[in-house]
Amino acid sequence: MDFDRCSSLTKFPMISWNLRTLNLCKTAIEEVPDSTIESLNKLVSLNISNNRKLKNLPTSMRHFMTSLRSLSLNGCSNITEFPHISGKITKLFLCETAIEEVPSFVERLTNLKNLRLDYYKRLNRVSSGVFQLEYLETLSLSLSSWMPKS
């Protein structure tokens, strides 16, 4: 289901429990309710990129969204906590968020292949658990923002 660029969408939509892909890029959703998370147990890909209103995701995600393999929160500048997600995730994109720390529980993301943390302004700690991830193929940790030439 694709809600890309629906900038007037402020509430998380009520969606089918068997949905596998959800694109909420450039919406104005402020929160993801726990009650909605419980119905997304078959969701494989979730993209909420470039949402300046979204606060942190519920910690219940890792218990209910067990099919999730790809999560993109790129450009969600109000996300301050590393998301609590299932260990089955393979792609996690957290560029340009306000996360200050990659916590030690990252080592439980044993299937993670691609972790992008580019353009962080507040990141000050990355757990050494990142370097223990057996299947990690790509780790991107660019800490400075790109500046165009004048």
UniProtKB/TrEMBL annotation:
InterPro entries given in the database record: Leu-rich_rpt, LRR_dom_sf
SUPFAM superfamilies given in the database record: L domain-like
Short name of any one Pfam family annotated for the protein: LRR_8
Domain of life: Eukaryota
UniProt xrefs under PANTHER family: C-JID DOMAIN-CONTAINING PROTEIN (PTHR47186:SF63), LEUCINE-RICH REPEAT-CONTAINING PROTEIN 57 (PTHR47186)
Name recorded for this polypeptide: Uncharacterized protein
Organism: Dipteronia sinensis
